[in-house]
Structure formats: structure tokens, C-alpha cells
Amino acid sequence: MSTNNNQSGLAQDIKVKATDMILPATLIFLVLYYPLCLLLQVLGIENVIITDVILVIIYAALCGGLYLIKHQCTMNNKPMSDVVPLINANVGVKFLNWAIITLAVALAGVCIQNGHVILLPAFLSIIVGFYVNLSVGQKLWELREPSAAWQPYHNPNFTPTPPQPQQGRRIVTRKFSWTEILNDMGVKTIGTDEVEVMFVEADYTDENSPHYVRSGNPFKNGQPMSDADYTTMTATVKAGSGDPYERTALSLIVQSAEEVCDKYHLAEYEMYNLLLRFCQYCIEYKVDDESAAINNIDEYFRFPGETLFDVEGDCDCKSILAYSLFNMLGADADLVSVCVTGDDNPNNFHNHAALILRDNSKKVKLPPTYPKVHLKGIDGLVVYCEPTGKGYKPGEIGPNVDQNSLIII
Fold first, then answer.
1. Which of 16, 37, 265, 380 is surrounded by the fewest CB atoms within 10 Å?
2. What are residue 332's DSSP bridge partners?
3. Which has the closest alpha carbon to 405: 323, 345, 328?
4. What pLDDT was estimated at residue 18?
5. Model-level pTM?
């Protein structure tokens, strides 16, 4: 049986399916069974058939109610892992499950034969609870968000298998660690948690390479002169460079984050937090005119592959990388420009880039612990994400950010 390695207050015992709560509901129902029967008699319900129907409805309500309570606790980051070992003790013991089911069926038959149908709902709940329990598994619950896992929502371009390199083309790797990220999230790490991606070196360093990635970046070929230029050029960079190694690198980072969630039993909505922090912690902040990798160009929005290859970038590079990771994950994200007020921005120009996340109940919901805001000109509530400074969780807004200035780009 697996153990829970997470020592933090994060919601580590989530991922519950409705079926996982059937056996606990059964046990509660059996404890309450006799008091419920007495209560129905006090209420004047003497008909045995009506009593049985009401008890079955109460059992169904317990199953659904327990799931809803569990799910609500999960989404509010209140783990209930201390309850799991007690209920989970019988999980996976098929012989015991079948023995209890067989005994319950036999006793149900005896009750029908002897006219004691008042006990039928109790035996029915035992049969259902322990039969469903056969499929729960032999490990501690990994409660699953109702939408299951992220995998069904991955971008169609999700490709964690790298392409076969052509002969003579030098492959270089970039290795990123989750350790600092997890430690700052309060997760006690075990072993090494890293993700390694690869690129063809010449495609990012040699302008004579036939697949030179940077030649397709509009910011290399000219500087934006208007808001329309920014919008058009940014759209080109957001779409990606088309480099298959870039696509694989994004996929591998998303896959690695999912493996981290599984390893430490994190809630699946923690994927939002992990990917955002990846851009904060793993990419060094460096302004464009100080970056030799891009020849110190005044304004340069990197393709996500460029940011990963260079392991550096400013707010727009980090934001485009975060957007690309969320897009590969399947989350609903938008890139935004924003005004950060201060003495160095007396005219309140848009001088910063960030992200917003939109809720989508058909996918993994944004938890209530992520503050949501209504932004001018943007429909519905959204979660602001800051990919630049370290330690910002989804929903946390940096100092001097003018929330009313956000524009989707």
C-alpha cells in the first residue's frame, strides 16, 4: 500500500470518484440504520414497503452527500487523509469482500423468506458497498476531480516523445528542477524531481542553419511601432515556432508536472500552480537589451522554445512560455498586457505581460482558494497569474499592477 509523502497542508488526498465514497456511505448507513427505523416509526410510517423505499433513498442521499462533502473539502484545500486509512483497510482484499457480499445475499434471502423485509435496505447497502469496493484498488485513495485527469484535455499537439535527430546535428539538453518549487509550496520532496528537454543546438545558435528558429521571430526582423504591430507580432510568437523539439519540450514539462502531482498526491488543480511557478523559478529574469542570446535587441518576445533554450527571458518571454504550457495542458488561458504604475512609468504605458486563467467546469475547475476578479472588458471572473516574480500563486497580483488596464493580446 502506498503512503502519502506530502507533509504540507496542500490537498494531497484528492481525485475522488463518486464510487470511492460508496463503502464509507454504506458503513455510515449501517450505523444509522436502527435509529432511522425508529425515527420513521415515530413519524407514523408503518408500511414496511414505504419504509424500505425511504431507507434506500436515504442511502443514495448519503452516497451523494458524502461525495459532495469530500469534494467541497478538497476544492477548499482541506485534506481528510486521516480518515482514509480507517476506511481503506478493507480495500483490495477480494476474498473478504466476496465473503461479506455472499453472506449479505444469503441473509437477504432469509429475510425475504421469513417476511423480515425491513432489513432488506441494510443488506442491499452491504452488497452494493462491498461490490463497488472491489474496484477501488489496493492503495490509498487518489481522489480525482470529477473531470478525471488532465490527459483528456491535452492539446492535440501534445507530443512527449522527441523526434529522431538527423545525423550530424548536435543535440543539447536543458535540465530543470522542481525541488525549489515544491519546497516553497510546502511539499517535502523525496529523491530527484527534474525534467530534461532537448534541442538541436544549431537551430537556436547558427543563423545559417536551415531550421534556424529565431529567423521566424518577427521581433528579430523589426521592432513594433504601434499597438497593432505588438498584437500581430505577439500572435505569431504565441503560436509557436513550429520546431518539433519545442513542442516536445512543452509536452515533457507538462507530463513531468503531472508526474510530480501523482508522486506527492497533489490535487490536480495544483497543475496551474506548478506550471506557473516553473516559469517563475526555472527561467532567469533578464531584460532584452542585456541578453546576448538575442543580440541585446531592445524589444524581443521569445518563442517558448527560445526561452527554454536560453533559460532566460523577461516578463513577456516568461508569460508566453506560461501561456504555451497552459495551452499544452489544455487550460483556458490568455496572454495579457498590463500597466505597472510607478516613477519609471509616469505616462502609465503598458509595460508588463502576464496571464489570466478562465474557469471551465468541463475541465479541472479553478479552486476557491484562487482569488478571482472581474476585469474591465473581460467577460466573467478570471484568475490573474504572474509568471515573472517568484512565489506568486495563481490569483495573487503584484504591487502597483493596475487591474483595470489589462488587455488581452
1. 380
2. 358
3. 345
4. 66
5. 0.72
